[in-house]
Amino acid sequence: MAWIKVIEPSEAAGTLGQVYSKIEGKVGRVANILKVHSLRPEALDAHLVLYRELMFGRSELSRDERELIGVVVSVVNDCHY
C-alpha cells in the first residue's frame, strides 16, 4: 500500500469538498482509492468522469465483461482493489 497524504471528507473544503459530497451522495462514502487524489481535486473529478464513461458508456462490452477486465488487471497487479 502506498503512503500518500490524503484529506478526509470531514476535513475537505472548496472544490474537494464538493467532489467528495458528490461521491458521498451517490455511494455513501469516499473509498480510499479515490482519496489518494485528494490533493488534486480536479484530477479526482476527471478520474470519476473517465470511470463512469469506461464502466457505463456505450460499448461492445457488457458491464460484466468490463468488471471482469478490472478484476483480472487487479489480480495481475497484485492489487486488492
In short:
With 81 residues, the protein is an all-alpha fold. 59% of the residues lie in helices and 0% in strands.
Describe this structure in words.
With 81 residues, the protein is an all-alpha fold. It contains 4 helices and no strands. The model has no long low-confidence stretch (mean pLDDT 92).
Mean pLDDT metric: 92
Proportion of residues in β-strands: under 5%
Rounded to the nearest angstrom, the distance between the terminal CA atoms is 11 Å
Helix content: 55-70%
Identify the notable features of this structure and list them briefly:
81 residues; 4 helices; globular
Question: Layout of helices and strands, plus pairs?
Answer:
Blueprint: H1 14-27, H2 32-35, H3 41-56, H4 63-76
